[in-house]
Design goal:
4 helices; about 0% strand; mainly alpha; about 90% helix; about 100 residues
Length: about 100
């Protein structure tokens, strides 16, 4: 809800109000990369480079963590598939003999 309000405030050109909503949303859901990116863009537009840089860096870090998590989950699913395939090969080889 806060992110949606922030988007509406951006559309109304109320960048300070939008940043306020995004900051509040970030506190409530700190693991949301989209919020960090939107806040960084707003800070950038408001010519607040130090804060924008920090938020862009937080966004990129959270994206890296998301990729690592996704790769780990994909590898876990593949490892399970490999184990099941190996089991089936053993069973099928016995049936063929």
């Amino acid at each position: 809800l806060l992110v949606r309000e922030g988007d509406e405030l951006v559309a109304a050109n109320d960048l300070s109000g939008a940043l306020n909503r995004l900051d509040r949303a970030s506190v409530l859901d700190p693991n949301q990369p989209e919020i960090e990116y939107k806040a960084a863009r707003l800070l950038d537009l408001q010519l607040r480079p130090v804060e924008a840089l920090m938020r862009y860096q937080r966004f990129l870090l959270s994206m890296e963590l998301e990729v690592i998590k996704a790769q780990g989950e994909a590898n876990a699913r593949l490892a399970e598939a490999v184990a099941l395939a190996q089991q089936r090969i053993v069973i099928l080889e016995r049936q063929v003999k």
